[in-house]
Specification:
The protein is α/β, with parallel strands linked by helices. It contains 6 helices and 12 strands. Helices cover 30% and strands 25% of the residues. The longest helix has 13 residues, at 31-43. The N and C termini lie far apart (34 Å).
């Protein structure tokens, strides 16, 4: 997959100094859906923390560019170590393998529930929305995702829209890697508010 050219940089974003963002992933995440927003948020002054269910793979999680292996990134904390109250927002990157594994992890469900119930921003892209459905958070919400998830989200009680970025209260959602620049801007604006 070609790199996503991003027109998102710290000059386009509000300052996020002191803001802490949890990035919840496991092996098989879509790399640009993590690295694009992470880079934009950090350039704007936010601190990001990669959180995974475990550190079994030498303390790293494996990224993918669609079906091809990409980079392995270091895990900063496990779900058992991370306290959702210590974060100002959560980022849920997609990737089929990642999202399918996280959606059944009760600790991941509890983490995202805690962030959402506190009214903090929940930024989700592509297949990451599966976790919101499995955590029983989707009912009555409107969001976008990778198109193949629309039935799952509707069955979970959500309204699905086909949009580059959609904001519903504290949720910011996008469909795919091409949406990363707009997604990063919308997430940063919500985090700054």
């Amino acid at each position: 997959m070609a790199a996503i050219s991003s027109d998102t940089n710290s000059q386009n974003l509000p300052r996020l100094d002191g803001r802490k963002v949890a990035i919840l992933v496991t092996d098989g995440f879509e790399q640009v859906e993590l690295t694009g927003p992470k880079s934009a948020l950090e350039e704007a002054g936010a601190q990001t923390t990669i959180i995974a269910p475990s550190t079994a793979s030498n303390g790293q999680v494996q990224g993918f560019n669609h079906h091809d292996k990409a980079d392995a990134l270091p895990v900063d904390a496990t779900l058992a170590q991370a306290d959702p109250a210590q974060f100002d927002a959560v980022l849920l990157p997609g990737g089929v393998i990642n999202a399918d594994a996280l959606r059944t992890d009760e600790r991941a469900q509890a983490f995202v529930r805690a962030v959402d119930h506190a009214g903090k921003p929940v930024a989700v892209i592509c297949h990451g929305a599966w976790l919101l459905a499995s955590a029983d958070l989707a009912r009555g919400r409107t969001l976008t995702s990778w198109p193949s998830l629309q039935d799952d989200l509707r069955n979970a009680g959500a309204a699905w829209v086909d949009a580059q970025v959609h904001t519903d209260r504290n949720w910011i959602s996008s469909r795919k890697p091409d949406d990363v620049p707009a997604f990063s801007r919308a997430f940063a604006q919500a985090l700054a508010a």
